TrEMBL record:
The gene is aroE. This is Shikimate dehydrogenase (NADP(+)). It catalyses: shikimate + NADP(+) = 3-dehydroshikimate + NADPH + H(+). Belongs to the shikimate dehydrogenase family. The active site is at 72 (proton acceptor). It comes from Beijerinckia indica subsp. indica (strain ATCC 9039 / DSM 1715 / NCIMB 8712).
């Protein structure tokens, strides 16, 4: 028997645009660190090419792939089954290929949950969620499934906010309310965890969600999904108020770890992935 192994396990990402997606760097760092003979290939797949890309992945016996914009919903038509949270969220960002069958998962919410669990258990907690887009939807469903009692969904667009509140109330045991976003929104005192799941702060260290930062308080957990730059204005303000903060790098790293576990069955260390991203974003 040869001691050499020239055939790697194949994983990757299908999205467009794809050039700014740092997942490949952190996943390959984990593969290298743990000696996993696998590759992660960042692929620019246009909308009309998704079916062919998936057929190709199956033909080449990939073990799985991530999918991002604009494929998170469209990919579902090509799958054989969905994990519970992905079915409720209605979007998939991680596909496992095993025995020729494709199963869709949503690791965004699970990544957030794992990151949050490093500081608290969401069970019986009250959450205030800023945003009702894809990331917010994934986070709300995962926190509800993990036992959060109430989720207040603060959003600018009423129909998106209401539809997420309805989804949580109907499909999980948690209660959820839509709260129209008014300028200088005061975060309720009863909030245990505030999450910014909007895109405010992406690529802009000074952008701040339009809330009364004086309503953030000591002991509250304030989390941001924004990973670039990781130290957002919101997190800096929250620290000034004595809150515990969680940055978006933790969510990104943990959704990568969940994906690797689903594909390879291996638990990989967060530290090597975190260090890779921190170096990339100049915060090492
Ligand atoms: P969507 O476009 O689906 O949703 C964007 C959300 O932000 C909506 O709720 C939108 O409100 C809100 N929003 C945007 N601008 C404003 C504003 N000026 N004032 C108030 N609300 C605003 O995006 P996603 O949910 O897919 O992504 C959101 C962010 O999460 C992105 O920056 C992305 O990079 C990040 N992300 C991070 C991950 C991680 O691992 N750390 C994983 C996935 C995403 P409205 O409905 O009113 O338009």
């Amino acid at each position: 028997m040869s001691e050499h192994h020239f055939l790697s396990l194949l994983t990757g990402s299908f999205s467009t645009p794809s050039d700014d997606n740092p997942t490949v760097a952190m996943v390959e760092a984990a593969y290298r660190h743990h000696g996993i003979n696998a590759r992660y290939i960042n692929c620019d797949v246009k909308k009309d090419n998704l079916a062919d890309a998936i057929r190709g992945a199956k033909a080449m016996e990939w073990i799985g792939f991530n999918c991002s914009m604009p494929h998170k919903v469209a990919v579902i038509d090509h799958l054989d089954g969905l994990a519970e949270s992905a079915a409720i969220i209605g979007a998939v960002n991680c596909v496992v290929i095993a025995d020729g069958k494709l199963t869709g998962h949503n690791t965004d919410g699970q990544g957030f949950l794992t990151s949050l669990q490093s500081v608290t258990d969401p069970k019986d907690k009250r959450i205030t969620l800023l945003g009702a887009g894809g990331a917010a939807r994934a986070i709300a469903v995962e926190l509800a499934l993990a036992g959060a009692t109430h989720i207040g969904i603060v959003n600018r667009d009423q129909s998106r906010g209401e539809s997420l509140a309805k989804l949580i109330s109907e499909k999980t045991k948690a209660k959820a309310d839509f709260i129209p976003w008014t300028s200088g929104y005061r975060v309720p005192e009863t909030t245990d965890v505030l999450v910014n799941a909007t895109s405010i702060g992406l690529g802009d260290a000074e952008a701040l969600p339009d809330i009364d930062t004086g309503s953030l308080r000591k002991g509250m957990i304030v989390a941001d999904v924004i990973f670039n730059p990781p130290r957002t204005h919101l997190l800096r303000k929250a620290e000034e108020q004595g809150a515990v903060t969680l940055d978006g790098l933790g969510m990104l790293v943990n959704q990568g770890r969940v994906g690797i576990k689903l594909w390879t069955g291996k638990d990989v260390e967060a530290s090597v992935m975190h260090a890779t991203l921190a170096t990339l974003f100049g915060v090492a």
